[in-house]
Amino acid sequence: MTKVLLGLTLIGIVLLVILSIIRPQGTNANSRLRSNANTSSKPSSPRLRTIRWVCIGAITGLVAGFGITWLLDHYLVFGVMLGMDVIIAAAWSVMLVGAAIALSIITHSWRKVLAIVTTVLAVCSTATQINEVYGEYPTLGSVVDITSFEPLDLSRIGKATQSAQQWREHPTQAPKQGMVGSVNIPATASGFKARTAVVYVPPAGLVPQPVRLPVLIMMAGQPGSPDRAFLAGQLPQIANQYAQQHHGLAPVIVAPDQLGSALHNTLCVNSTKYGNVETYITKDVTDWIVNHLPVSKEPQHWAIAGFSQGATCAVQFGLRYPERYGHIIASSSELGPHNGNETRMIRDFFNGNAAAYRAHVPLDILHEHIHDQVFAHSTLIMGAGTLDSKSISNAKTITQAARLAGMDATTIIVPNTGHDWHTVQATLRTALPTVCAQMGLDFPIPTLKDTAATTGVRVVEQK
């Protein structure tokens, strides 16, 4: 789609420029006679006028596109780095928008219509090029927050009756692919107004005697949705690939809604501003999974993951509830809850209680447990792209603190990606083989370095 829109935009601009040079508008026999009769005025050539306007529009767009996105990136206006790929894509695309707008101003008649259409194509091309960098909206439905999945058929899922080891010893016929579906998880304890969740059940969970499987809770960023986690994160593809290599075994994956709306940054805390999000995820969602899906209840068989704001939530929940979630996978996480000015955030989300805020900050939680063994059996894997230096710094800082608190913590760096879903995909492909083995799906347990050698990411050595 991006290449098509870009191609049509370029064709429209080139066609309009060529037409303006071959048959410039506003020139006829009478105007040429007037021009010859009064050569002293030396009117501007329509051809030169067209070229001049196109150049002005293109240069203005280039400078504006590059300058604005660079400033947004440099000053972290959105709380994250945009990355040079986004800056270049924006500069190039807005340059085309500028040229198209200039042509729409100076042309007339049907050419103006063509110029306006070209301008619209240029704007759409800009959006798709930036989206291609982030991988944020894989379908048109995801743009308008329409779910892409049919309701989950719970009638196909029975209670777990065997362990993963029993299944490996005596595997039976299972579907080739897992099942994906949407489901409304009731907010029984929290009352939080959540959107529809998305669930993946692997082949080994769809047999007559389902396997007792581990769980991966995955949260998208903000703005975002559960659909985004599955589509942009390529969760079904990653899980099915793992299942095909392990006799149908893979984690049950649940993408719940921790936002309530794409526009809400809830900080994943209980607040009067957006509702009891923390209770919803850690109580309502967790209990629903245990009661409706063939899963283990043991914390060492539960992992919680996320991207961006969802990654920050995953780290918070994993550290605040180690008795529920034994593994954390975080891609492009922040250092802690972040929603504008800290003073205002504490006022709006924590009723002015600074201590309550600090109780949700990962570094404070880890420091509190630096001398005990609370996290002795917990795993933390932090992922970040090479083009996202802020997230790399965050990952290294949290990982270092986690190791001091006795946690098995590692940072992995994904080459040539930024604060985007490509980083998430690479992080999951690298982390899942190790985490799944730790959750009982494979033996011996592969190291992150073993998997990184095949996925192309770099494991950071930290003491």
TrEMBL record:
Keywords: Membrane, Transmembrane, Transmembrane helix. This is Esterase. The chain crosses the membrane at residues 6-22, 51-72, 78-106, 113-130. InterPro entries: AB_hydrolase_fold (IPR029058), Esterase-like (IPR000801), Mycobacterial_A85_antigen (IPR050583). It comes from the Bacteria. Gene3D superfamilies: alpha/beta hydrolase (3.40.50.1820). It comes from Galliscardovia ingluviei. Pfam families: Esterase. GO terms for molecular function: acyltransferase activity, transferring groups other than amino-acyl groups. The keyword Metal-binding does not apply.
